[in-house]
Amino acid sequence: MSTSPASQITPVTPGPPAPVIFDLDGTLVDSEPNYYEAGRRLLANYGVADFSWEHHTRFIGIGTRETLEILSREFGLDAPIEELLAGKNRTYLELARAHTAVFPEMRAFVKRLSAAGHPMAVASGSSRAAIEAVLAGTGLDALLTTLVSAEEVAHGKPEPDVFLEAARRLGVDPADCVVLEDAAPGALAAHRAGMRCIAVPYVAGTADDPAFASAGLLFRGGQGEFTARAAYDWLGQPVRSS
Q1: Stated pTM of the model
Q2: Which InterPro entries does the UniProt record give (predicted)?
């Protein structure tokens, strides 16, 4: 496993363009502050006044529905999950449309992949409406048109459903795909899908999580270490059999 930084990778001429599947939140875009604020406001409406950023980071990489199911149990909320889900999505969409930042090197990577003809998809635990709003607001929708939400499959991450569905919609073999992920549940989902993974941990302290051990390329320093060139050079390396 290559573990950081990819400065030691020797560029080679890429083979057939590998399909690349992106997680959205925390990977392509820095949407976690918006998700935290949406969750904080939602819980405050139900009398929970002490939901912290540290508490929120426990759920990075987990789908919105699953997150709310856990929080509902923890805080003893008696509102239906559908009500909570609708409330959080509504608030999140307002925040996301106002501003969502794209990680610059990720934008550069998407453009480089597009120019080279790599099939691409987004597979996220967010709602489809949230995915579409974020991509439209950042201009990434012009390059990323195959989208899969956890709402559209039976199980969210760490199960592999969203990634397998993305491969199906792209018409490619899952074994040929490369996933970009920022969270341990997503890296585990990629492994379970039989896909290679480039891991860019959003929370630096999670870099040693066992789920990242299966990543083919791990940028331990997260987005501050990730570069489009390093990731693209790694894509061109021969795939080693396990």
Answers
A1: 0.83
A2: HAD-like_sf, HAD-SF_hydro_IA, HAD_sf, PGP-like_dom2
50 a catalytic residue: no
156-206 pLDDT tens trace:
999 999 999 999 999 999 999 999 999 999 999 999 999 999 999 999 889
58-90 burial string, b = 16+ CB within 10 Å, else e? ebbbbbbbbbbeebbeeeebeeeeeebbebbbe
Task: Catalytic residue, from 23, 30, 182, 233: name it.
Answer: 23
